Amino acid sequence: MSTDRTRPAGRRDQNGPRSAPSSPRSASNGPRSAPNGPRPVPPQRSRRPQPHRPLRPHQWFAERLLAVLSGQRPVHWMLGHTIGEAYDQLAELAPSTPLRATHGSRPVLRHCRGAQPATGVVEAFASIAAGDRVRAMAFRLEQGADQRWRCAAVELGGERLTAGTPGPR
Question: 92 burial class (0-12, 13-18, 19+ CB within 10 angstroms)?
């Protein structure tokens, strides 16, 4: 056991705990009389980054869909995250979508909101900014028996993304 009383027994570094400054009011019950006396140390903020809240399913999917539809990620990144023909439709549409980066402006997700019309279903919408343009994206998520969310439908800028009709250019 350590005989040094300035640090805990298991601590190996040479820095001891900081002593808290005494409050000027604790010495006397009146206000401070010396204007140049010791000033209280402001509380220090933690240097550790604050933990982020986990993204909700619709926020997570909005980021993923944006990455695929803008060409930042390949379509196969959505394998296992789509239901039925949604993956095939994304594979056909991703190269021709209007969210592709143009003139160095990469699209970013501005807002994303979702509503749950039934248990295991989320209908969401997002606004996407690319340069001076703002586009809308809507999508539907369905929760499977394995409790995983999968994308069932996607619409972009009012036009349904289907394999037969490419998006506007």
Answer: middle
